[in-house]
Write a structure and sequence with these properties.
alpha+beta, Rossmann fold, 2 domains, six-stranded antiparallel sheet, five-stranded parallel sheet, 12 helices
Length: 431
Amino acid sequence: MSSNIEKAAIPKAVEGAIKRILVVDDSRAQRRLLSTMLKRWGFSVLEAGSGDEALEILQTHSADLILSDWMMPGMSGVEFCQIFRQLDKKKYGYFILLTSKSEKEEVAHGLEVGADDFLTKPVSSNELRARITAAERILSMERELIEKNALVSRTLEEISALYDTLDRDLIEAKKLQQSLVKERYRSFETAQISLLLRPSGHVGGDLVGMFPISDTEIGIYAIDVSGHGITSALMTARLAGYLSGASPKQNVALEKNGKGGFAARPPAVATELLNRLCLEEMDTEHYFTLVLAILNLVTGEVVLTQAGHPHPAIQRADGTIEYVGNGGMPVGLIEGATYEECRATLLQGDRLLILSDGITECPNALDVMLEEEGLEALLWRNRHVQGPAMLEALVWDLQEYAGEKEFPDDVSAAMVEFGPPPPVSLNDQDD
């Protein structure tokens, strides 16, 4: 019966955070008494007769808990505790001072230098067991926290590695998306076409492009897929195939002309076809806005369909602005949607600008959007700049308007300038 009571009295510390205890006391009898109790309770025990001896032992052995007498010749228990706290240890060691002192100031000093608890001599076995159990709870929480911190650190490392991989993939995706716009500028005898594509992140949902139709006609388009990021970018890649200049058979804006070649399909019909393809073949909740235009390089006539995209702007040779288009519904929202066409004629020195809402809805530091009035001011300021330089100047001015803010949306533009290209200077030829 007594052996069962003895086992029941053994604290759970034996199976937990406290396995080895270092007893430090200059009294051999006191050490033996404490060691006997601790071993009976299942702990591994180390003994030291002084603080110096204890420090020597700790160079080769670790201790979960230290029981140290306060008053010892040479190094006191308080001094030993202070040095112990400065040791480079992998885990925390619980420190209990054994003392006959009861003065509050001395006890406070012991706590200040690093002691965790006190026991008054002569030591009661019941009180010692209770203090060890309390130490076990504290050390268990401390080591559980260490394990959780280690888990968090490993998780952060894994997340960081995944982020680096994703970041590299997104950089490559950006290169691939930019490659969808194979030509940023093309010059004809009577017109020039410039394209701009600036995603707000690594990849975006805007796309601009052009495709040849005949010797006298060329197609221009601007797309803005709803949302941002990877899914929007994947949809633009799919749409690029439907308006590809390299594969006229797949281009929904073209149809066979009966002479072995291709002719322009009316932009409204092509947009309706895109709407049907989007709803039937693309399993997505995304939709997109679109301007699809056909330019006659001889007459300057433009036939276009506007499907939810901002109104295209015509800047006349004198700098004045006109807006064209019928508004229209975005593509991919409603089955059977129909679209209208509008016509305009570009004269010598005029230009047509098809701009994304990332420009007109760009906010400044006060969250005031640029809107059409601000856009017209930027276009007027850059009315004498031509070609890709004009679009770059537009982005530069837009960044000045936004201030330190990043563009919250993709910025894209397609620009047609009607009239012969500007003369090339001798210096340009040398370059």
